[in-house]
Structure formats: C-alpha cells, structure tokens
Amino acid sequence: MDPLLNFENQTAIITGAASGFGRALAIALNQRACQLVLSDIDESGLEQTRKLLTSPEKCKTLIVNVASEEGAETMVKKALDAFGSLTIAVNNAGVAHKQAAIHDLSGEIFDNQFDINVKGVAFGMKHQIRAMLQQGSGHILNVSSMAGIGGAPKGGAYSAAKHAVVGLTRTAAVEYGRYNVRCNAICPFFSPTDILEKGGMGSEENKAKLGIGSPMKRISKIEEIVNVMLLTLSPGNTYMNGQTIAVDGGVSAW
C-alpha cells in the first residue's frame, strides 16, 4: 500500500456515518486499516455502514446526537478506551433546510442549523482537541460547504452555519498548530447526499440544474469528495493547517 494512504495504527472518529460522505469515508479508511469510531442518530443506517466495512472488528459505533456535548465527549472516550488514541476526527454530521429566502426563515430553522451544524462541530472539536493535546498530535477535518465560503440563495441559515464551521476551523488552526494539532475544512459543491434530498433538490432534474452552476456542468460524485478527504487526512500530509478546501468542479474559479 502507498504509505501516503496507509492508515494503519490510525484511529478516526467520523460523525454522520450512516450515509453519504460519512459512510463512504468510513469504508475507504477501513479498507486502509484505520480503526474507527462511527456515530449517527440513524441506528439502522449506521449498522448498514458497519456491514459494508472490510474489517468491522476495527470499528465501534455509537448513536449520538452531535448537538449534545455529552455525545461528543462519549465518542472521544470510546476511541481512547477501545483503541488507545485519537489521531483523526471528521466532523461530518450536518443538516440542510428547505429552500427559503432570508425574510422567510424562522427561528426554529436557525436553531436547528446552529445546534447541529455549528454546535455539533464545536462540541466535537472541544473534546477531540483535548485528547489530541494530551497525546501531542492530531488532525481534525470539518465538513463545511461551498455555502460556507460564498452565498447560498434560499439557503441563508445553512450558509451562515457553514460559514461558522470555517471560522471555527481557522481559529483552531491558529490556536493549536503549535501543539501539532491541525484543523482543516472541506467545502464540497452539491453532491448526491441526504442533505440534497432533505433540502428538496434530490430529483435527477434538480441535480442536472444544480450542475449547470459548475464549469464541469455536473454535481460531484460522493467518491470524488471522499478521495479529497483521504488525501487531506493522509498521515503523510502533516503541514496543511487552517485551509478551506473547495472541491467544486471549478465554481470558485469564476
């Protein structure tokens, strides 16, 4: 195996692992010998992810609501108890909201977005960083969005929350880089995940319309985003810190 993609003796937490990026990343890391702690609120989806793993014995699963700080702390404890270390954390869990202009957004929508998309990342980072400081190194990858580095018409609360993820990422990179604890964010363009479905844009017609916004004239495939995650998380990639990585087919080049 190429040493850049060899995750043997690495331990990774992945939130939102019952589907989408989380599931695909779990499978890809497990194929490369990584030990896993996977969480989600979807118990059946999480169990299905586990069944798809090459080495399920290297995986622990937890039903966790990421908006709960207790859940974040429990995930870290599970990693340390089961595998003795925490080298990677991927804060991937997130939700979208139905399309609505800013003047039509409710307090409930904002609360839901910030509880899951912001607090879920912030609480995760809090306890992940504490563990990584104790062991002297670690790498956190937060899943933001192109909506986190640009505007998102009809997705204002989601965009605000994903901008907050970028802010947390950059702040952590500056605060903890000197301790060899790094933090980066990935910002995907539209991909065929549950977020697209729950945002009301999951039909093939809508996907085609969304793809027009990319110079490549299509939305991404899940594996295209996950491949960038793998490269970013590579044990050999040790100097990347504080970056917001746009994986967008060239949208940000315009």
Structural account:
The chain is of the alpha/beta class and 254 residues long. The protein has one domain (3-246): 3-Layer(aba) Sandwich (Rossmann fold). It contains eight helices and seven strands, in the order βαβαβαβαβαβαααβ. It has helices at residues 20-31, 43-51, 69-83, 107-135, 156-176, 194-198, 204-211, 222-233; strands at 11-14, 35-40, 59-63, 88-91, 138-143, 181-188, 244-247. It has a seven-stranded parallel β-sheet with strand order 3-2-1-4-5-6-7, sandwiched between helices. The chain is globular, with a radius of gyration of 17 Å. The model has no long low-confidence stretch (mean pLDDT 95).
User: Architecture, according to CATH?
Assistant: 3-Layer(aba) Sandwich
Name the CATH superfamily classification.
NAD(P)-binding Rossmann-like Domain
Structurally, how many domains make up the residues? Answer: 1
Strand content: 5-15%
Total number of strands: 7
Average pLDDT over all residues = 95
Helix content: 40-55%
The count of helical stretches stands at: 8
Instruction: Work out the oligomeric state of the chains in this entry.
Output: single chain
Q: List SSEs in N-to-C order.
A: EHEHEHEHEHEHHHE
Task: Please list the strands of the largest sheet in the order they lie side by side.
Answer: 3-2-1-4-5-6-7
Report how far apart the termini are.
37 Å
Low-confidence stretches: none
Task: Indicate the CATH topology.
Answer: Rossmann fold
Q: What is the C-alpha radius of gyration, as a whole number of Å?
A: 17 Å
Pfam families: adh_short_C2
InterPro entries: NAD(P)-bd_dom_sf (IPR036291), Sc_DH/Rdtase_CS (IPR020904), SDR_fam (IPR002347)
Protein name: SDR family oxidoreductase
Family: Belongs to the short-chain dehydrogenases/reductases (SDR) family.
